[in-house]
Amino acid sequence: MTPAPGPASPIRVVVADDQSLVRAGLRLILESEPGIAVVGEAEDGDEAVSSCLETDPDVVLMDIRMPGLDGIGATRRLYDTGARARVLVLTTFDADAYVYAALRAGASGFLLKTAPPDRLVDAIRQVHAGDSLLAPSITRRLIEDFVHRPAPGEASRAMLAALTEREVDVLRRIACGLTNQQIAADLFVSEATVKTHVNRIRSKLRVRDRAQAVIAAYESGLVRPGTH
Length: 228
Known about the structure:
The protein has two domains: about 120 residues, 3-Layer(aba) Sandwich (Rossmann fold), CATH 3.40.50.2300; about 80 residues, Winged helix-like DNA-binding domain superfamily/Winged helix DNA-binding domain (Arc Repressor Mutant, subunit A, Orthogonal Bundle). Helix content is about 50%, strand content about 10%. It contains eleven helices and five strands, in the order βαβαβαβαβααααααα. The protein has a five-stranded parallel sheet, sandwiched between helices. Helix 8 crosses helix 10 and helix 9 packs across helix 10. The chain starts with 10 loop residues before the first strand and ends in a 9-residue tail after the last helix.
């Protein structure tokens, strides 16, 4: 008889924010949730990077505006080191111009600090699962507000050339904010097929998640701000 699987390992989280009260509040929320463990705290970007290298977390809650090395710089440094942690950016305003820069640096999504506790927990689980935290409306507004599309270069064209025609179709729809379910309905295929295409797109573009695929689609010129 096959033994029952043991309990899943908790999602390991590092909390990076320059305000001690905010860190304490986030820790209190997260430690009350089963399956989540706060393994480190940081009050600036340098501490965030050090803590991640020491504790190897699954997810980092990263405040953008911190003294010294800010959240964007810390995210970029983590990404450059090859750390496996996924970064969930915390911001005060949904119109924060730094959010796009953080996504470009390697963040997997962003969340308002005013979000309710259950939304915070769901966001951590979602990012840990490999999904990006970018709702369709947020994807469109964020990109349209903060992307000034450069002229596609040879590297961008070569990147798209690696994709099949169907993968390009899927990537275009991802960049326009469609969910897998919506893409499946739009292309008359199963949701499982869409997931396969998404995984192949991520592999070919060498991006970690959906958020990075969206950035690549815009910066390659595949889609433009205002596309729906």
